[in-house]
TrEMBL record:
<feature type="transmembrane region" description="Helical">
    <location>
        <begin position="35"/>
        <end position="54"/>
    </location>
</feature>
<dbReference type="Pfam" id="PF00528">
    <property type="entry name" value="BPD_transp_1"/>
</dbReference>
<feature type="transmembrane region" description="Helical">
    <location>
        <begin position="248"/>
        <end position="269"/>
    </location>
</feature>
<feature type="transmembrane region" description="Helical">
    <location>
        <begin position="281"/>
        <end position="303"/>
    </location>
</feature>
<keyword id="KW-0813">Transport</keyword>
<feature type="transmembrane region" description="Helical">
    <location>
        <begin position="174"/>
        <end position="200"/>
    </location>
</feature>
<feature type="transmembrane region" description="Helical">
    <location>
        <begin position="221"/>
        <end position="242"/>
    </location>
</feature>
<feature type="domain" description="ABC transmembrane type-1">
    <location>
        <begin position="88"/>
        <end position="302"/>
    </location>
</feature>
<dbReference type="InterPro" id="IPR000515">
    <property type="entry name" value="MetI-like"/>
</dbReference>
<keyword id="KW-1003">Cell membrane</keyword>
<comment type="similarity">
    <text>Belongs to the binding-protein-dependent transport system permease family. CysTW subfamily.</text>
</comment>
<keyword id="KW-1133">Transmembrane helix</keyword>
<dbReference type="GO" id="GO:0005886">
    <property type="term" value="C:plasma membrane"/>
</dbReference>
<keyword id="KW-0812">Transmembrane</keyword>
<dbReference type="GO" id="GO:0055085">
    <property type="term" value="P:transmembrane transport"/>
</dbReference>
<protein>
    <submittedName>
        <fullName>Putative spermidine/putrescine transport system permease protein</fullName>
    </submittedName>
</protein>
<feature type="transmembrane region" description="Helical">
    <location>
        <begin position="126"/>
        <end position="154"/>
    </location>
</feature>
Length: 312
């Protein structure tokens, strides 16, 4: 033992050569990497400045001005006119209905694709379609639904021809509140699928196995294990869907024109219209929309962080 320890102690130590310090005026590897990192995120900050911060600041200034550029609070007083309040209320109802419908149907679709015993090709197909459909909006979406559910649309004609059912005899109209809500569901449901699927993937198999080993039922697993983990993600995604539909303008304008008085169409009429032209009132309307969507997005961010802490 002594000889071995003497031999081990006699082994030479490995000497690590010192790293030479960079010359004055020469950046080290860490500084160069940090500079490249900032250059990588510079386009994001530039985009946010040009298309988010500056337009929002312009709206905030214009909302407190009259057409002559003088400070005034008249624009915010005019927000309480019956027509403006009705526009906000209709937008709120359309957004809430499409958000709740998209949340329920989208969550069930995501659960069927992730947790259900479906063929393996269902999930990638659903995710691919959701990625495309969640970005399909505006004039093309409005035209597609007019051709599908309009008075002479494909589905309307087929229902009347083969089933003897006149869809429009029930009071339905593609230009109404119900028609706009159904149209919004086309991109709300796929967006919910994309958001909720990672949360469903976060449910560990060990949790279900532990519940089964302890004699728990499927209802008890969802009531006491899965839903407490999922509800922040589902509720946050619902708020995001609400903000998404509340700020939509192109689809509603192309589909309904001025027949449905939602706040985005009223805003467009105040800024670009010939009859209701009051640009500064339009700025105040936009500022109110920013407040509503900002609160919704803030709630989504808070709930998402809560969900991530719960999964950890």
């Amino acid at each position: 033992m002594t000889a071995s320890s003497d031999i081990g102690s006699a082994q030479p130590e490995l000497l690590v050569p010192p790293v030479p310090a960079p010359a004055p005026g020469v950046k080290g590897p860490g500084q160069s990497s940090q500079l490249l990192t900032w250059l990588g995120v510079a386009p994001f900050f530039l985009f946010a400045l040009l298309f988010l911060i500056l337009p929002t600041g312009f709206l905030m200034v214009g909302a407190f001005q009259d057409p002559q550029g003088h400070f005034t609070l008249v624009n915010f007083r005019d927000l309480f006119q019956p027509g403006v309040l009705d526009a906000y209320w209709i937008s709120f109802k359309v957004s809430a209905a499409s958000a709740l419908g998209g949340a329920v149907i989208g969550s069930l679709l995501a659960w069927a694709a992730v947790q259900g015993r479906l063929p393996v090709w269902i999930r990638p197909t659903l995710m691919t379609f959701s990625g495309v459909a969640s970005n399909f909006a505006g004039v093309p979406l409005a035209f597609a639904f007019i051709c599908t559910l309009g008075r002479v649309g494909l589905v309307t004609v087929l229902l009347k021809k083969y089933l003897g059912f006149n869809l429009y005899s029930t009071g339905f109209s593609i230009l109404s509140f119900t028609g706009l809500t159904v149209t919004y569901l086309y991109f709300q449901i796929p967006l919910m699928v994309l958001i909720v699927t990672p949360a469903l993937d976060g449910l560990k198999r060990e949790w279900r196995e532990a519940c089964d080993c302890l004699g728990g039922t499927s209802f008890q697993y969802w009531r006491y294990v899965a839903l407490p983990v999922l509800w922040p993600s589902v509720l946050g995604a619902t708020l995001l869907l609400f903000a998404n539909s509340f700020g939509a303008v192109a689809t509603a304008y192309a589909l309904t024109g001025s027949s449905l008085n939602i706040v985005t169409i009223l805003l467009y009429a105040q800024i670009r219209g010939d009859v209701l032209h009051n640009q500064n009132l339009g700025y105040a309307l936009a500022l109110g929309m920013i407040l509503v969507t900002g609160l919704s997005n803030g709630g989504y961010i808070w709930l998402r962080s809560r969900a991530e802490r719960g999964r950890r």
